[in-house]
Amino acid sequence: MTKYEYVKTFLREQLHSGAIKPGAKMPSIRQLSIQLGSSKNTIIRAYGDLEKEHLIYGVPKSGYYAILRSSKAEDRAKGLIDFSAAAPDPGVIPYEELQHGLSRAVELYGDHLFTYGDPQGFLSLREAISRHLAKSQVFAGPERICVVSGSLQALHLLALMPFPNGKSAVLVEQPGYAGMNRSIGLLGVTAIGIARTEAGIDLDELERHFRNNPIKFFYTVPRFHNPLGTSLSRSQKETIAQLAAKYDVYVVEDDYLADLETDSKADPICSYDRSGRVIYIRSFSKIMLPGLRLGAAVVPAAVMPMFRMHKAVSDSSTAALSQAALELHFGSGLFQRHAALMRERYGVRMKVLQAACDRYLNDDFRLSRPEGGIFAQLELPEQLPAEELAAALRLRNVEVMPTTHCYIPGFDAVNGVRLSIIRTNENEIDTGIRLIREAAEEMLRSGSGRASRSAFSWI
């Protein structure tokens, strides 16, 4: 056995035996080099291979961490390829650093944990968020920022509350974020749909809606759309801001994946707002622990008093421990480092997804082509109803989400499924797309649904 093989075997045994606990930081390269009498290059090579095997992961300027092993519930689902997930993979969360951050938060903010705070959130956190948003060309002082218990809370409050323009209907992209569609439906708010495609939005149609309907706000996900995964162009974002000012319509911009952006010139609609008509929503759940349930809303001065009042009635104040932890993660650079890691990792996975679809599926399937993010939509041929294909895939231990859930009632839905790469590694993505092909083939052979043998050239 070579020295390299010995080092790799030693580390693998430490991980599998639990000697190195899941989520714990791995020994430093220098420390291992001394302990095992190996060169630093040998340790680096071993760590690189263990990372490819998904046993560890690296955090820039921090080191390597052991990946969290499955819980008992996940063990029962061993082998599941989950294209339906929207929450981060627990196996790539820096738990040791997070635990340290939470402990420090208790030490430093203990007096805040036993009292109700400002409904807008800690002033110090809002100042930190203000600095963070400025990197995305969103310039707002802490007085215009409200910390919320997840971006969905902000969306729910905005759908519920009255607006200064006195209008009542909400214009929503179709398909769109299923959580927002559900919130509008539960509140009984009048919802009007406008088609969103890979090319974006028909701006002439948008103007007709703004001019002819009592739209209080237009809800849009311009960056890494859910479920399409694609983004609006700069000219479209500029025009939306101009139309909002012209027709006194507010825009609620859900920029939930801004921290995964790789294009430094991809500015949000908010950056083109000159009339105070854009409400900007940012989520921090897709980067760090979704259980922290934290987001931020940048609210125009004319809207803030009403929003603040509804926020106070909703939950008095956002959880103090979560706020303190996020502030410390910003201050330590942990959030930024982890965001950089996720951008790289998800970028690789998205390219693997596109390559796998090109390899296994023919032209009857249409995959959207996002430049980043975590979602893509796979449009299916008519002969393969999305719900039936999803059911067939469950038998193969593959989960997908039919995009029918992303439409409001009465709007014509595209026959498709949303594919998420947030909890699937490269091997699982390739296997999962191959299984989609196999399930489609089986449906065609059995004549299930509306499938027919003549539908595909490879049957």
TrEMBL record:
SUPFAM superfamilies: PLP-dependent transferases, Winged helix' DNA-binding domain. SMART domains: HTH_GNTR. Residues 1-69 form the HTH gntR-type domain. Coiled coil: none annotated. Keywords: Aminotransferase, DNA-binding, Pyridoxal phosphate, Transcription, Transcription regulation, Transferase. Its cofactor is pyridoxal 5'-phosphate. It holds the Pfam family Aminotran_1_2. In the C-terminal section; belongs to the class-I pyridoxal-phosphate-dependent aminotransferase family. This is GntR family transcriptional regulator. It comes from Gordoniibacillus kamchatkensis.
